[in-house]
Design a protein that fits this description.
two-stranded parallel sheet; alpha/beta; 262 residues; eight-stranded mixed β-sheet; 41% helix
């Protein structure tokens, strides 16, 4: 089952150069294999890793994988000196991919919770449906969540319930970071996002701002698997800030909808 809605006319067809942006934090156990798997399914994809790890071990793993690829120039890795958050990592990666001439952009985590084998079908679905944003939703019929701790399940459910109650955009999953963006959406994200929070709250900020811009938004089922290698970069503090951030986004959305011309 897929779920689509729109508040504007379809965007025109875009070029087929695919970009993939991956925020990373201590992902040396996953990143080389993930790069190989992505290129197995989308051989021409240009991949950008934004690494906020406190050391260079993840970067070394990226360099090791680059040497094994037939087109190593398709891999770019950027190491930042401190953990600046998922939102700023996604923005940095999107800007790089936009400047490199990519069309649609895939956003995904480095921990294999989003299965890379789903990328071709999601790209095809987004393209054929004329969507600017396609969210791989964990909460549609046909989706599966595997091996996720009860605490994370509970937080995700509460955060999504709060987002739906306040933001009222007809999607089921506001907080999954496995997404497909059209060139139009990438341009809008680079132009307007990043002002309401740096961490996971950026996912809801992007959704709201694309909705306000009249973009076509939809969802598709996915299989979400809890990581079995490496460590999660999500802290309790970040989760608390994410809940508070939803309220900030709600206030921004309400003011934007009341403004002249909205």
């Amino acid at each position: 089952m897929e779920n689509y809605y729109t508040n504007s006319v379809p965007a025109p067809a875009d070029c087929e150069t695919i970009g993939v942006v991956i925020p990373a934090y201590k992902e040396q156990d996953n990143i080389a294999l993930l790069i190989k798997r992505i290129h197995g399914f989308v051989p021409s994809a240009r991949i950008v890793i934004i690494d906020d790890s406190p050391d260079l071990v993840t970067m070394s793993a990226v360099e090791g994988s680059r040497a094994l690829l037939p087109k190593p120039n398709l891999i770019t890795a950027v190491h930042r000196e401190r953990k600046e958050g998922r939102g700023s990592a996604i923005l940095a990666g999107m800007r790089h991919l936009r400047d490199a001439g990519c069309g649609r952009v895939v956003e995904m985590d480095a921990d294999f919770s989003p299965p890379p084998e789903e990328i071709p079908a999601l790209l095809r679905s987004a393209r054929e449906s004329g969507l600017d944003l396609l969210i791989a939703s964990r909460y549609l019929p046909g989706s599966r969540i595997e091996n996720w701790p009860i605490r994370r399940r509970l937080f995700s459910r509460v955060a999504n319930l709060l987002a739906r109650l306040l933001l009222r955009i007809p999607v089921s999953d506001y907080t999954n970071g496995f997404r497909i963006y059209s060139p139009r959406a990438v341009a809008e994200v680079c132009r307007s996002c990043g002002n309401l929070g740096r961490g996971f709250i950026a996912l809801s900020e992007i959704l709201v701002k694309l909705d306000l811009a009249g973009c076509r938004i939809g969802e598709a089922p996915t299989r979400f698997v809890n990581r079995n290698r490496g460590e999660s970069s999500v802290t309790c503090e970040e989760l608390r800030w994410a809940v508070a951030g939803i309220v900030r986004i709600f206030l921004f959305q309400r003011n934007a909808q009341r403004a002249p011309g909205q």
